[in-house]
Write a structure and sequence with these properties.
Elements lengths: L1 H5 L2 H43 L1 H39 L1
């Protein structure tokens, strides 16, 4: 109970709201989007292999670089999202 005594009400409400939205988004959209993206990736890769295996190999060569850049972007965006949540809890 000391957590609720020490933590501002706005922070608790903001966290509860954001967590609820996150869980709802995960089950309604993110999971289906992920399955769809995997299917599209596999289908595209197969089509590329059939059309030109050399070009497919070249594209796959750059794929780790793309994953690295996406990971760097994700790490930077997490900081921005945390700051936004903090500001929202201050407003509430």
């Amino acid at each position: 109970m000391s957590y609720f005594d020490k933590t501002p009400a706005g922070s608790i409400v903001s966290r509860l709201t954001n967590d609820t939205e996150t869980i709802s988004d995960m089950f309604s959209g993110i999971l289906s989007s992920f399955i769809s993206a995997v299917f599209i990736f596999v289908t595209t890769l197969y089509t590329m292999l059939v059309l030109d295996y050399r070009l497919t190999a070249l594209v796959l060569l750059f794929l780790p670089l793309i994953f690295l850049l996406v990971n760097l972007y994700r790490k930077k965006s997490v900081k921005v999202i945390e700051k936004t949540r903090s500001l929202l809890s201050d407003i509430n």
